[in-house]
Amino acid sequence: MDKVEAKKRIEKLKKVIEHHRYLYHVLDKPEISDAALDSLKHELKKLEDEFTDLVTPDSPTQRVGGKALKEFKKAPHAVLMLSLEDVFSKEEVWDWISRNTKIVSASGEAELFAELKFDGLALSLIYQNGELKRAATRGDGRTGEDVTQNIKTIEAVPLSLEIHGTIKENFRAKAEKFLKNGAIEIRGEVLITKNDFQKINTEQKKAGKQIFANPRNLAAGSIRQLDPATTRSRRLDFHAYDLLADFGQSLHSEEHEILSALGFKTDKIARVFKNVNQLFGFHEKISREREKFEYETDGIVVSVNNNDLFKRLGVVGKAPRGAVAFKFAPREATTIVKDIIVQVGRTGALTPVAILEPVGIAGVTVSRATLHNADEIKRLDVRIGDTVIVGRAGDVIPDIKKSLKDLRPKMAKEFRMPKSCPVCAHELKQDGVILRCVNIKCPARHRESLYHFVSRGAFDIEGLGPKIIDVLLDDGLIRDAADLFALKEGDIQPLERFGEKSAQNLVSAIQSRREISLPRFILGLGILHVGEETAIDLAENFGSIEKLRVAEKEELERVPNIGEVVAESVFGWFRDGRNREFLGRLLKHVKIEHQKKRAKGKFFGRTFVLTGVLESMSRDEAKAKIRVLGGDPTESVSKKTDFVVAGSDPGSKYEKAKKLGAKIIDEGEFLKLIKS
Questions:
Q1: What residues does each domain of the chain span?
Q2: Which end of the chain is less congested by CB atoms within 10 angstroms, N or C?
Q3: Are 252 and 310 a contacting pair, CB within 8 Å?
């Protein structure tokens, strides 16, 4: 960027920053997040640093203002290490309080305790007669990893307990007894300061070693080192937040007092609130100030302070009802859309993707963000050259939140979806909001269909991912999925990054999938509109691939949960000559297990939708139990849904179920239904 362009950009940035500063600080009506505004200021500062003579006194930059690893032993937890439900708004906090009030039939507002939600690694410490006996990670909540030797290198973790400073006499008496004869469990978070995180990454970079994405990754990686000397070098810290021992405490806030007296660091910002409005003010204050803290934090943990009330509220899924994680707004930043390209998926769906000027968000560098479809581009009014706010949905998926039109350059270009497939130049077909390439020979569709074939849920071939598929295709070793089963070690071994052992492992993984269930086989074919549940419905109704391949469209439409669109797709797939030839070659290599029809059990004719995380079983196991009892697990909620089973952290299906008035049950109720 030359000086003329920089001057124009600086003037625009100053106006936009001032506008949003006024909305935020004067009117209290912000339109963008603090993180996005900070990102704009950062860009301005960089330009002013480069062109110092363009700095003016009115610039915002001149404002003065105040499962356990194999290497470690398994460590079972006597009391589950639970996770927390996330809430993101005041309305969701009020909903949480309302639910709890109904459960315990309480009147008035319960006293709340709030503490920082540190971005670290959860840890359990067991002390016997005051001596540290075991340190374990959370793991799956039931069983973690014994990392005692590594934890002993952390100075903030006492190797033996003693009472420090003042403590209430009734607590002191109990503490002295425990320290002489008794077990105490302390739970907390292994942390690393932001400064130490940066220093270690600098050291790692100089040594040509791994760069850690965020402090939590560094803490987790350090704790799982086989050599305790490496853990010691990482400058880790520990903050305690929970006490699993009866010292006579009746409040969670008292546990913090006891933990501090026992020699542990605790959150010094934590405090008790008599009402929710005080809590909201605290949350907003911490959200604004969190960048100043020594440690990364992404929210506050809000708990019912009364321990008896907390216990009465119980647990749902893997989360206690008596506490939630009140998260801050997702991390956001501003960047520029350099280009918009189109990707072609296995079903021919065209997805526009924004190519971004790389920007760091929540510990990772983001350079791409999906724009979903033409309607989304129109809604956002995103153009090539625009400055946009980018966030990570759930702090994971890159997402364009907003286009800042006041910063739009004159040369910004509107994006139009292509008239033909960008890969094969074939015609496109509009399918609702989705534009599809209808050429089944499209190279992009073919490549994506191979990725799908080997993926989890379909053939699930371990160690065979997109990068290896690309190499096999590009080197002409395979044409399609059927050719995978004919590969030999000698075909693969000459490829880059492959040796004798890795070639053997890959061939062995492929050969282990020569026997497969009918639903997985059908799913692996990649038929448009056929997902996991539809594949199961087809398998159970036809029983064999031979019967399915010759089924008429009318027969397919009679299958429960399969409508005209899906029936047409399945019928058309098996009538296509290229697909028939592929299927014939595939069946020469693969044996399909016999498919039994679903029994007419007590769930017969009833549909279930699962959402959130279940504690007692995986989602696949829950679906299998439903099918054994004759029920029908489906993916989407409708007025015909009989039960929505809600685990911890339920998603959008839970909200839709509430709107439709569908019957929502928790995991405990679901288990009772199964056993009754």
A1: 3-62, 89-327, 332-431, 443-592, 607-675
A2: C
A3: yes
* Contacts with 263 (C-beta within 8 Å, 6 or more apart), sequence order: 158, 161, 162, 164
Indicate the CATH number for domain 332-431: 2.40.50.140
Backbone torsions φ then ψ of 282, nearest 5 degrees: -60, -45
State both tokens at 283: 């949350």
Is 0.85 topped by the overall pTM? no
Examine the residue annotation and report whether 117 is marked as an active-site residue of this protein: yes
Are 90 and 84 spatial neighbours (Cβ–Cβ below 8 Å)?
Answer: no
Do residues 148 and 134 lie in contact, with contact meaning Cβ atoms separated by under 8 Å? yes
Between CA 248 and CA 256 the distance in angstroms is 13
pLDDT tens per residue across span 151-184:
888 888 888 888 877 788 889 888 888 999 999 9
For the chain, list residues with pLDDT below 50.
25-28, 63-66, 68-69, 394-395
Contact 537, 567 (CB under 8 A): no
Given the residues 12, 41, 117, 402, select the one marked as catalytic.
117
Give the per-residue pLDDT at 13: 93
Backbone φ, ψ for residue 17 (5° rounding):
-65, -45
The residues near 592 (Cβ < 8 Å, ≥ 6 apart) are 515, 516, 517, 518, 521, 544, 545
CATH of domain 607-675: 3.40.50.10190
What is d(CA 667, CA 610) in angstroms, rounded to the nearest whole number? 10
